[in-house]
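Format notes (please read before filing issues)

Several people have asked whether sequences and structure tokens are stored in separate files. They are not. Every record keeps both together, in the order shown below: the sequence lines, then the token lines. Line labels are part of the format and must not be stripped during preprocessing.
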Amino acid sequence: MLEYLFSALVAIVAVVVAIDVQTKGHPLTNGLLEVCGELGILVLAYSPLGQGFLGGKIKPVEDLQENDMRAKIHPRWQGDNFRKNAQLVDDIEALAKKKGCTVSQIAINWLLSLSRRPGMSTIVPIPGSTKPDRIRENATIIDLTDEDLRDIDRLLASFTPAGDRYPPQHMKYVSA
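Then the structure lines:
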């Protein structure tokens, strides 16, 4: 992927990647964000709320409806994986309460804050929403201080997501 970006004969104006606070590896550590920053390529972060996980509204997994595919086929949403991943949501929720905002607002604004780091690309989170209230909530800018960002970095450094984002047969399509 990185070689392609450097050798492309046509102008690449944006790259779309799945990235959220539960993402370990790939876009955060493989150099993609830095290369995009160097080349002036916009990064569109789809699913910045981890398919709703970071909305902070689903606790426990049994709250999902019977026909919800997330708990049926997505490893991150199943059994012990869900419980382990929910701990990060609980930790972020503590910061959100302190700031008077929601878990989803912290998650989205954290992505926006990555753009302020030296050498990073501009990152535009594109959360999906089904309700007008959620759209307003997700569009709210929250001022994350340097201290807030250090707190989030500490949380993320000690967190390892349990289970992949997608089932194995789909994961091959999301890795560069």
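For reference, the curators noted about this record: The chain has nine helices and three strands. The mean pLDDT is 81.
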